[in-house]
Design goal:
Blueprint (H helix, E strand, L loop, with lengths): L6 E6 L19 H8 L3 E4 L16 H10 L6 H11 L6 H13 L2 E7 L9 H13 L4 E8 L9 H15 L3 E7 H4 L6 H13 L4 E3 L18 E3 L14 E4 L8 H13 L6 E4 L22 H7 L4 E6 L3 H7 L11 E6 L15 H12 L6 E6 L1 H4 L6 H24 L3 E6 L8 E2 L8 E2 L8 E6 L5 E2 L12 H9 L13 E2 L9
Parallel strand pairs: 1-12, 1-13, 3-4, 3-8, 4-5, 6-7, 8-9, 10-11, 10-12
Antiparallel strand pairs: 2-16, 5-7, 13-16, 14-15, 17-18
Helix pairs in contact: 5-6, 8-9, 12-14
The structure holds 2-phosphoglyceric acid (2PG) and manganese (II) ion (2 copies).
Amino acid sequence: MRARMPGVLLVLDGWGHAPPAPGNAISEAECPFLEGLVLGRRGVLLDASGGAVGLPEGTVGNSEIGHMVMGAGRPIEYDSLRVEQQVKSGALRSHPLLREACVRLAQQRGTLHLVGLISDGRIHSDIDHIAEVLRAARAHALERVVIHAITDGRDVPDGTGALYLSRLNEIVKVSGVGAVATVIGRNFAMDKSGADHLTAQAALLVLDGRAERSAPNAEDALRGGAPDGSVTATVITGATGGPAPVRDGDAIVFMNFRSDRMAPLADMVAVLLASTARSRVRLLSLGHYDTHAGIPALVPRADASGGLADALENSEVRSVRIAEREKFEHVTFYLNGRDARPRQQEEHVLVPPAATGPVQDHPEMNLRGLVQAVIEAAARPDVGLVVANLANMDVVGHTGAYHATRKAVEAVDRAAAQICSTAFAGGRWTLLVGDHGNAEQMLTSPTDGAPAIGYGGHTTNRVPCALISVRGERLKIPSGGEAAICSVGPTVLRLLGLPIPAAMSAPELVDDSAQPIRQG
Ligand SMILES: O=C(O)[C@@H](CO)OP(=O)(O)O
Ligand SMILES: [Mn+2]
Ligand SMILES: [Mn+2]
């Protein structure tokens, strides 16, 4: 079926809104098109963080929850919220799978290994969850518990790694059990680019204590001057008295609640264990991981089905999903409610990278290729909806490189303007929205009163959402005064002229009073 009113959904990744200020790479960039959308009457501001989308209150948004709730048309309890609920209720500590693992370890004097990102960025992990599992280990009187610490510097300011490792040592001291056995940066342990040699360094460190260097304690592992995310594999000799290789019968708990960046390591660990006669090692993960290994999760995922993808499929409306590598899963798997089933009416275009090397050296990434793909798809009369993610403000923003991020904003501005005008000329509406803030705030104070330092992470700021419509409709915030990016799914369906499923409880944002849509 052809959509009566075809359109384009552009997710401008990391497009948040904040008042003009130093460190606001958007207000300080030359971006007349985006600025006009926000300042003019075409746009509204939407919540993209905390409880409004299904995250714990006060938590910054992220690309997974952002795309998921846009597609689902309602807030979805994110993994971090579910873990937090289980911590509060005590259910995590007494979880049957954890209990079973601990009982076995206690009987056989095995070692519990915890592998996790050590920060409170709360995008992939929270250091407090480690404290909770250590309490469980203590309750079972486990003698050997070791922590394989992954240093962050992306979800929290770079350079704070040592602070978090000393906080971890405090947690260990208070819980009376555990020791940090190894340290490695997230750029190795949580690589998801498919660079197996990076993942392997982390896997061999965890499994066999294999590393080129050692340090007497965790904080000393950071003394080499590398960014926190790039700390090379280090064995800690002090507390554990040398490496703590995984023996058959041990248990490993992956402590990140988010899957995407931990799944490659978890999978490699599973394969290496099986090939080295350690198949009785119990593997568990805090949240559900999309692995081949099928690792049991302590906290199951929330259902995000019944959203945009199902509605498009049911109405037989064709959509084309377009992104560069970094955000490809977001416009497909996550937008579809973490559902990888192929759909007949859906086409995917993976835009290849334009250049190699540090992204801050080519902040425009491959916007040229992406714009071309969007324009080609939008020209096809059989395509009802084109969805594309313009990743630059997030991907370049994460480097913390301010000047490059401004360039990224300017490149996105030009690309979005070109797409909108071409779509408009072809009779299509375009809805533009951020999935969470990033580029609008690139300074932060790590502790109250401390001077601001550079920061490339996500924010809790609201995000702009704007409509360029052929029929002249505008967006409105429903009475009550607030809306979140969960409204994107129903708004897209409304603009396409399709029925909105009951599961999408968020209000659509099309303002009838400005330009009534003739039904039928
Ligand atoms: O890169 C990532 O893993 C996170 C930040 O840690 O960002 P996003 O949610 O945009 O993927
Ligand atoms: Mn994002
Ligand atoms: Mn990001």
